[in-house]
Write a structure and sequence with these properties.
The structure holds two protein chains of two kinds. Chain A is α+β, with helices and mostly antiparallel strands. In chain A, about 40% of the residues lie in helices and about 15% in strands. In chain B, strands 3-5-1-12-9-10-11 form a seven-stranded mixed β-sheet. A six-stranded mixed β-sheet of chain B has the order 7-15-14-13-8-29. Chain B has a four-stranded mixed β-sheet with strand order 18-26-27-28, sandwiched between helices. In chain B, α11 crosses α12. Classes of the chains: A alpha+beta, B alpha+beta. At the A-B interface, α1, α2, α3, α4 and α5 of A face α1 and α18 of B.
Amino acid sequence: MTDTVVIRLTVNGAPVERRVPPRLNLVDFLRDELGLTGTHWSCEHGACGACTVRVNGEIVRGCLMFAVQLDGAHVETVEGLAESGALADLQAAFHARNAVQCGFCTAGMLLTADALLRRDPNPSREAIRAALSGNYCRCTGYHAIVDAIADAVRERAKRS
Amino acid sequence: MTAPLSPLDRPVGYIGKSVPRPNAKRLLAGRGRYVDDIRLPRTAHVAFLRCPHAHARLKSVDVAAAARAPGVVRVVTAKDLAGRYTPWVGTLTHFKGMKSAPQHPLVSDRATWQGEPVAAVAAESRALAEDAVALISVAWEELPPLTDAAAALAPGATPLHPELGDNLCFGRAIDAGAVDDAFARADCVVEEVYRFARHTGVCPEPRSILADFDPADGTLTVYYSSQAPHMIKEIFARHFHLPESAVRVICNDVGGSYGIKIHVYPDEMTTVAIALMLGRPVKFIADRLESFVSDIHAREHRIKARMALSRDGTIEALAIDDLTGIGPYSTYPRTSAVEGNQVVGLAGSWYRCRNYRAQLRVAFQTKPPTTQYRAVGHPIATAVTEALVDRAAAALGLDPVAIRRRNLVPDDAYPWTTASGLKFEKLSHQASLEKLLRLMDYDGLRREQAELRRRAVHRGIGIACFVEITNPGPAFYGVGGAPISSQDGCTVRLDPGGSVTCATGVTEQGQGTETMVAQIVASTLGLTLDRVRVVTGDTERTPYGGGTWASRGCGIGGEAALQGALALKGNILALAGTMLQAEPAALDLAGGWVVDRSNGSRRIGLDEVGRAAYFRGDTLPPGVQPELVATRHYMPRRYPFAFTNGVQASYLELDVETGFVRLLKHWVVEDCGRVVNPLLVAEQIRGGVVQGIGGALFEECVYDERGQLLNGTLAEYLVPMAGEMPDIVVEHIETPTAESALGAKGVGEAGTGGAPAAVMNAVNDALTPFDVRITAQPISPRRILEALGKA
């Protein structure tokens, strides 16, 4: 067994220090070491987006990163972003539109939508669909998710 | 004036209102509780060694090195499990002549598909378990694979299970009316061979189980991702020789199921067996790669179909021959024959034609088992029927709408019995079609299509009418001997503060089951939704019931909730009548109060009723025993199924240079009876449509001739993603079933049942100028280019 490595990072604003094996994946690290089970495993190939988390402000596929790559990083997960209120408008819009059924893809959808709106505050419907094209949802057929994000776009425009 | 308003029609109630799901807020906050989120002390994690061959004899297996590996708790092979379980056989007695072989948790002498589990390692972590699996050495003797269903049934084919004699799991023939005469006399005959590939469910949350056996008191608690907790409890008890009372199954959040998580899987049975052996929690979470070769697959049909018509477009006869491959075993306990049975039962059933012949052959083969998956058989029956109707329309020079108008069972013809013997209570095909045409502006789209075609832009319009089987009664499974309940119950309890707790046997996988139950109960008891708590998915806390599948949650579970709430209401009013010295019949419930029925004036709060019943019984007259809880069950009896109907349309553009299809828009008009929550119903349809589009355009488990899966990752197996999907417009017609007071039928599978037909017809409509057509799904760009002679 390869030696473990100490990493120090910030997760949802709180400092974390852990000794981890080099093969430990970011998703397993969040789920098993920190109990942050809102981030999900699904395709394990970087194709489905269920494991989307924010690292140093950018969304990444958690399944394609190892914990040892996170030394010094700022990691944000759906739990932290939900508690801080950063996703509140998107959450409300998803709720109103029933843009969530089983909920397994939802954290990834919210983080991806939020990244889109930070980059492009006024995306077209097509741009919303394109931005979600790496996030797999089997339940909704996507239409309600697109509607919800479009609603949030309007709400954010009103606020600013 | 007629009878007073029923609770369903109350203007202040929630029935027919688009209420968002209260329980979705947890999921939106990352606070879901899926099986892998549950962490129990001393959990062992399981990984499997799976057979790498489609068909092979297991000569020897050596686990010594694996057993010594770090963190390993136990290595298990078939030998270790002998005597600890009863094998299972996936047959139903009402399917005459059906046969299948006993299935076991682990391979003991012969593996019959690539992915069949052979050995299991339980270790301190999944990673350590996988490390140890890699140390197991197995000697295989490869045997000839049997991948092709037609070859499996050819004369002289070697039986996959010698004791069964041949490879035919099940066959059925229907011959109604005078089919040969009709074909002989027909003005027009169209025929075609249609092929539908194997695909699979790809649940976002893979199959997941956490089995916890406590040897001290002999209880087995299983946290499980499933649609049918009571069914699987029965099966665990039966096959592991446990008292029924010792098994508890808990389904918290389920990350998608669609028919995948309702079957008995060898790896899950092995996990339970290991928990029983170890006396500690044992978890198995399928990874994506093993899901592709161990989840059930679906479809895989080859259908020869012929339709006879008279010159005016009247369908005179339909004949179909379905050959379907189901893998090496019929899946337990629902069997793998229902899909094909529904294909031959449903094809053409929305048209008036009385001359119908069908043959079904269900064949064993060496690929993963196929069985029920969302819309079981419907997409196939609909695609074949509707493709033939479009071909006939073209051959006769008729518009696709005109030929459907001529042949649909008229809305005033019900009750109607189909040529295949299905009984339809009341459907609305004609009204639905006309509503769809208005919704999509059919004539306008046809003009646009013609104009664009002149500019070499190739758009297609496809229409598909269909029916859906919902609310199945005991004739579906129970009569065939399966422990599958067609009834469901709901317990409704008034708590002392005036809120209500309900427990229901139907389950939640995100459809909105809990919201639907809460809407019905709140409306009946005059409460706001926030005062109704709904409990699902726990065999120890909910009335016995079938769960949520076959589009039965609202039609059956909703009716049980309504009847339970009405019974509780009766009990509350009886007690309130005693307290108020009033006639219960003169009282009603509204806004959390007992009110005068005549004028709505408030008499006493529900919290006061609850307080008197639970804390101040001393204030009640002698002999009054409050019963502020009621349970009612419901199962449909008059009709074996509540059929629904609908119609879908697809509008798309075809790039004839690349073969790419761009979906522009999709419309659905659906009649599922009373709609309790239009928002949730629309979302069931939209999600179903996209799942159907997946099968129509993208999804295929590609196997080579050796029975090896060639695209078993989510990077290679294509699923519908947001960028390729159209907006989907949904409208309703409501024809309630008279069988229940609620009048709701099901809706979960209608989208998936109709979409592949609409899309295939639209592709072929776009191909009209080229005089070629597509007859196989998925309709890949390559298939389109091949049809165009460009591949």
